[in-house]
Amino acid sequence: MTELNEDLRCFRIGPGGCLTGQVRVPGDKSISHRAVMLAALAEGTTEIHGLLEGEDVLATLAAFRALGIVTNGPERGRLVIEGRGLQGLQASPEPFYLGNSGTAMRLLCGLLAGQRFDSILTGDVSLSQRPMRRVTEPLLRMGARVAAGATGTAPLHIKGGQALHGIHYEMPMASAQVKSCLLLAGLYAKGETCVIESVPSRDHTERMLTAFGYEVDCRAGRVCLHGGGRLHAMPLLAIPADISSAAFFLVGASIAPGSDLCLMEVGLNPTRTGVIAILKRMGADIEVLDKRWMGGEPVADLRVRHAALHGIHITPEMVPAAIDEFPALFVAAACAEGETLLQGAEELRVKESDRIAAMAAGLQALGITAEPQVDGIRIIGGVPQGGRLHARGDHRIAMAFTMMALRADAEIIIDDCRNVATSFPGFVELAASVGLGIRADVVDARR
Length: 447
Hints:
The chain is α/β, with parallel strands linked by helices. 27% of the residues lie in helices and 28% in strands.
């Protein structure tokens, strides 16, 4: 029998078509991670609806089960967590394997730095190459003992039983993961922990801490809390649809003539809506409908129809609010008229892949002019050709290029797509249901 290797999964997408209908993409990944963590640290039972059941979030959930947390589910996005309070976690006999999830590793690093016991955090090859000094160095200033590899990467060895103290930390870059790591460590620290930001990053952690009853002082450019408080369970916590997942469909419907698509219950946290603002500047037809609140977060339905896009200059101050959506935005730029120039986005080089290099290579393989730069990229819009490219194990690279087939002149094949399951389980089926000619294959491992 031929052995198959899931790591060699590829997508095949037929050219042309349009996106129509009404769909809800999975729950927000960033919020799902934080919901699991804070519900586990709260006192009492929290029921979560709309949880993303992707591999990244399931890695976080597995870590908390190893820490002694009892759960029921997840099943169809419903998860019940029996919280044990801030001091209720138990030591895990084994290292925590976090797969491809940078969010899980960086946030858990802060949380576990305040525990009584030792911990080890590991991940897959991609995660083990991502920079961790950005969290370990400020944690050391708080009194934590965290050891990384020689290059500042995982595995991370965390020594328990340390007396943490609060610090005032000025962020050298916009990073919600670093901010959240320090706030979680601050729950266990003596005194006040403050994170000062010159550029706002996503604020899901501070919103959710407040929802769980923890006092957080949020002012312009700074977030502060005092250690020693308590988190109280929420009877019901509903998670909006993920705008990062919705971004692929916003772009696909924008570039494909005849498209008219409605995306339901999309989270519109003001620190995350950069993709909508940028697409609208490019000429996209996106209508925001029925604004409302869900789980302490603003949500709305988004109707997007085909429009003629044009290239723009994306400046550094526009980057943080769209940092995860740039692979999709690069596809919009490739199908727009004229030049798009992105600057100030060097953070893209240390994501799940070097997204600037990976996207430039893929665009070039499909006949689009793409010139990578140190902190961004220059793209000249054109007509995509068919072809074969490599997603480099990056879920957002894989999903972004599927949408280019809507404008391509021949089939596009994308290799190394297994990690799409980290953030968007069911992507192929949902995309096909609204008109994308996509199928997933598993390649013979011996090739």
